Amino acid sequence: MTAYRIVRTAMKALQRNPMRAMLTTLGIVIGVAAVIAMMEIGTGSSSALQKTIASMGANVMMIRPGTAASGGISFGAGTVITLTPQDYEAILRECPSVRSAAPVVRARTQVVYGGRNWVPSSIYGTTPSFLDIREWNNLAEGEMFSERDVFTAGKVCVLGQTLARELFQGEFPIGKEIRVKNVPFRVVGVLSAKGANMMGSDQDDILLAPWTTIKYRVTGAALENANQSAGSDTASSSINTLSNLYPGDAPSLYPARSAVQTANNPMPVRFANIDQIYTAARSTAEIAAAIKEITAMLRERHRIQPGEPEDFTVRDMTEMTNTLSSTTTLMTNLLLCVAMISLVVGGVGIMNIMFVSVTERTREIGLRMAVGARARDILRQFLVEAVVLCMVGGAMGILLGHGGSYLVWLLLRWPVETSPAAVAAAVLVSAGVGMVFGFYPAWKASRLDPIEALRYE
Amino acid sequence: MELIELRHICKTYQMGDLDVPVLKGVSLTVARGELVALMGASGSGKSTLMNILGCLDRPSSGEYWLDEQEVSRLSSDQRAIARNHKIGFVFQNFNLLPRTSALENVAMPLAYGSARLSDRETRRRAEEMLCRVGLQERLDHQPSQLSGGQQQRVAIARALVNRPAVLFADEPTGNLDSRTSADVLHMFYQLNEQEGITIILVTHDANVARHARRVINIHDGVIKDGSFGLNEKADDLQIDVLPVAAAAGGVR
């Protein structure tokens, strides 16, 4: 018999008792529907979580300068300035897994507007692509400064929500002029609120400006983590503040280097350097590849011999991502297990009904054997019936599960995502359930003795 | 060679430690084109002989030649093929598939045949068979919509659809009233007469056996008479049997 005829015979046999067939498949329908709904809701929430993580900067990698060592003494991470604007351009140009990169020049200084002042936790000199990397593209007001501003070291800036609130107190900030370390900046935009980051520090307490402007007009120095408005080397040191224990003088841990020492052992200083580079991989999956590419490229650019330690570090948020996504994966798998159990229960129902069916149709089996059906024909017929039952149930379950997850999305706004893998798995599993649970009754049927089967009352 | 030839067929059932011999050396022949009745009281071994003849069961010993093939030693799968190709069954209780049209019931044995018939050919053959038994108006009726006689005719059509060498009818009129019984028996008679189909009627009813040209009487596992119906002797045999049949008819 051709496969088509076998299936048609099975369908006809099932049609003889449509109500029972439907009730039997109900177990499979519910099982498959549960699996599909769980998979869709699971993948939906995990991809929503991925998005959330991404907005926190999960795809972000930070490249920071490495450790300087002089005479065997390590000065700690970031003490040597090795990254250049050319490095960042090269990363953008030569690393295919990197979506975007932005240089960052940091400063920590006072920002003044009218009679108010504030020292934001971060003043970043960067390029417009910084917002893209941090997934921060929606500005609350105004717009981001442009590449042209970066090129011309334009005195424009974008404020974070906290900074804008502290300085302007509800006044409209766009177009106003603020002073950063006595350099006037025009406010062109206000960032949207982002809240605290994973470590609890306020991400909205920020000022963004072209890196060239910060670098050449504001800091003028290599790397500054200290509050430069309270620093030592500019005119602003004359600010009269009572909170400063040592006005105009930062305490030094080490004895100041004499002119002779400096001349003998000069610290390598480059003038066009940057504090760090923010890069974003194309996707979370490509982070590892991106790190590899960046490391190889920078080693080459910095002429580091094989075996020598790097003069930079690349860090990513892998750990954070892993922790968060493992939680959703765990939940999804847990729910999937429960759904699978209901599928097994459905399978037992199928087996039960197939047994009833075999008993009830003993005479039919005997007749089929009498007219020439071999044992394997009978086995196949009942097995196909069970599988068809399961497959029909599976198809209905897929629709029901899909509808259910759509309903969940509609009513509860939980994120759902159609998953073709789940559909394929459901089809395979329901066919498998039919095979496994249909086999024993079918085998029993094929073992019947035709004489006794024909005489069965 | 005859169509059916049994040589010293024995069948012994084992009930625990006890051996119960049911057939004790049965030998008989049936020629092509014969209409034979197999008679015997219940418990005489009639059904067992029928099962062996129908290739549903295997004898404990002896030879069974069916259509020039020794079938007593075949495996169950080979016997299934033999049943499909050479044997048609008509049962007392019709054994039609419920909630299935007459046409599909008749076409059912074709599905197990080795010849791969197209759907159209299958349908054509089933229709032809149903026409032959006079049910051309009832092709799509289900068994529950047919009378007993019509159901039995569907069963006959089903038995004939594979063009078997021999047709076994096991108490074909047992569930029918006398009028429809006569119709069905007349149909057997006609099929035998006009189309030369070999028919073996199994019955305990002498009235039924009367329609046969030869009666094989089985009693207590051995054949009493009618084993070897030589064709030229068939008329004599019928004469022998007729008074018995007439007597039985009178009682009824």
What does this molecule look like?
The complex is a heterodimer of chains A (457) and B (252). Chain A has 457 residues and is an alpha+beta fold. Chain A folds into 2 domains: 3-53 and 323-455, no CATH class; 59-231 and 246-316, no CATH class. Chain A has 14 helices and 14 strands. Chain A has helices at 3-15, 18-55, 85-94, 129-133, 147-152, 161-168, 211-219, 259-264, 287-301, 318-360, 362-370, 375-412, 420-446, 450-455, and strands spanning 60-65, 67-70, 73-77, 98-107, 111-113, 116-118, 122-126, 139-142, 156-159, 177-180, 183-191, 206-210, 276-281, 312-315. In chain A, strands 1, 4, 5, 6, 7, 8, 9, 10, 11, 12, 13 and 14 form a 12-stranded mixed β-sheet that branches. Chain A has a two-stranded antiparallel sheet with strand order 2-3. In chain A, a hairpin with a 2-residue loop joins strand 10 and strand 11 (183-191). In chain A, helix 1 crosses helix 12 (375-412), helix 2 packs antiparallel against helix 13 (420-446) and helix 3 (85-94) crosses helix 9 (287-301). Residues 221-238 and 244-248 of chain A have low confidence and may be disordered. With 252 residues, chain B is α/β, with parallel strands linked by helices. Chain B has one domain: P-loop containing nucleotide triphosphate hydrolases (Rossmann fold), CATH 3.40.50. Chain B is built from 8 helices and 10 strands. Chain B has helices spanning 46-53, 76-86, 102-107, 119-132, 148-160, 178-195, 206-209, 234-251, and strands at 4-15, 18-30, 35-39, 61-66, 69-70, 87-90, 166-170, 198-203, 214-219, 222-225. The longest helix of chain B has 18 residues, at 178-195. The N and C termini of chain B lie far apart (39 Å). The relative contact order of chain B is 0.18. The chains are: A alpha+beta (457), B alpha/beta (252).
